[in-house]
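Practice record 12: protein with inosine-5'-diphosphate.
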Amino acid sequence: MAVERTLSIIKPDAVAKNVIGKIYTRFEDAGLKIIASKLVQLSQADAEGFYAVHKARPFFADLVKFMVSGPVVIQVLEGENAVLKHRDLLGATNPKEAAAGTIRADFADSIDANAVHGSDSAENAANEIAYFFASSNVYSR
Ligand code: IDP
């Protein structure tokens, strides 16, 4: 299996709940390494640009509003099959449909406040990582 990288964002709801450490532990226990990390307040332009692919969707404005409602923690995770492994840890987009024991089942309240973002392909991951991190700030190990 290939070693991959993926982009992960702990969203404002999970940061507000003080579960950053619990979520990081799940990543590490699954064999994913945190190779870049930052706590930041996204601007409106940051959030709109990041979610540009969803611009035409009815929930776009609410999604952007939510993502700028408080600080987020953005990380790059590296490991075997990292994209899928991370999404398996997250569970379904809607926490009501997320399998028991997943991050969204345990920490998320609603489909918009759903705790963590995860890239959905290796190609999108590369673009999302470059959106938030200069390559000199990603520390493969
Ligand atoms: P994902 O985060 O599980 O990959 P996407 O379909 O890429 O899900 O949607 C991006 C984000 O947009 C979701 O994480 C969620 O916060 C929000 N979202 C998706 N669908 C809806 C919806 O129907 N209503 C409100 N927010 C939504």
